[in-house]
Batch of 2 targets.
Target 1
Amino acid sequence: MKKLKSKCLVLMSGGLDSMLSAKILKEEGLEVIPLCFESFFFSCIPAEKACKQIGLKLRVEDFSKEHLKIIKSPKHGRGSGINPCIDCHLLMIKTAGKIMKKEGYDFIATGEVLGQRPMSQNINSLNLIEKESGLKGLIVRPLSVKVLPATIPEKLGIIKRDNFYDISGRGRGKQIELAKKFKIKEYPSPAGGCILTDPNYSQRLSELFKRVPKFTGNDAEIIKFGRIFWNKDLLIIVARDAEECAKLTGLRKRGDVVLEPYNFSGPTVLVRKYKKSSQKEMIDCGTAYGFQYAKKIPDDFILKLLPSPKPL
Ligand code: SF4
């Protein structure tokens, strides 16, 4: 009977390392399924672009709710911003592991490089992730295979150690050479597209968490935009351009006050309450903050109050 092709899931961020890992495994003759996770803090758009370039079809899994929980209470601490990289990566691996077992994949692969990131890609973190995910020996890191212990797929002969790489450390030279070999021309910078590593957003989210420990995904999303102010228990967001005006309007929830200038030039302002406040208080507060960024305000100014969206 003809042996079925071995298949693996490759965690795909859209960065060069995950693209290379998928390519290396494809060259090895495996069926490769790139898997990307979506949350309130990152999207799969870069991964979609990357997969188009390397000729693979991306699978997208939304794990926003589970991800939000670890943002609030990471077991393994945070990086330089509010990014809980070890817990986040662990959640991705655990979720991929469940899919692997349920759907009969042989192993999981990642674009990790030993020693590339001080917090999440040192040997202790890689071992911890294997142990806590219950996937010991089933995570292949194609770029660093030769500097890591043999995995189960190697021992079973599914992949051959000699065909993989011995990259470690923070340099990018070997990856860039490999990109040329595989004719990968476009790839994002290693900084990545995760807003949790952005110092400005980290500060906004930390403040939200301090004031509203039970914040929702919508709260986390809306503070990506505009100028942010807090006045007692009111969050005030003043849009900086037309795009942000549209974002605030689109993300408004029932109970929010959204003010749009009607007969003068100025920003859209959203006011959200986290405790009891009257609509009048919210309008007064939003008007005061919005006026600071408005151009000439006429005596007969009119602010349009957008209707609250209907409950879901
Ligand atoms: S950078 Fe962001 S997406 Fe990547 S592991 Fe850290 S928290 Fe998760």
Note: The chain has two domains: 7-194, 225-305.
Target 2
Amino acid sequence: MTRNRLDTIRKTLLSLREARLQQCRRQNADAAALLDEGVADIADQGQTDNLKDYLHLLSDAGREEILAIDAALERLRDGSYEICESCGKNIGMARLEVLPFTRLCLTCQQNVEQQESSKAGPVKGQI
Ligand SMILES: [Zn+2]
């Protein structure tokens, strides 16, 4: 990859990071407002709990993405950006342009997704 392309990706990652941060802040504010209003409207307490879970998941995903972006920026610095973390092969520019903060090549990503979808039960608390 050329220097210019790396610079472009770095800028993309930084603006993605900023957008995610803002989105997280907004979601947290929305969640707080929704929960305040929701308690009066939703008689069934179970629904309020579901809403809380849902909003919690959303902000977790945002946080994870920000961490992934930070890790990608670090890999840009140390030169391992294009290398798949799992198998050591080149991830490929086409994939990185679509998913600039991915750590895995397509094959490894598919393996991970298969494993995750075959897991039974809640994944909370697992790392
Ligand atoms: Zn791989």
Note: Residues 82-119 form one domain.
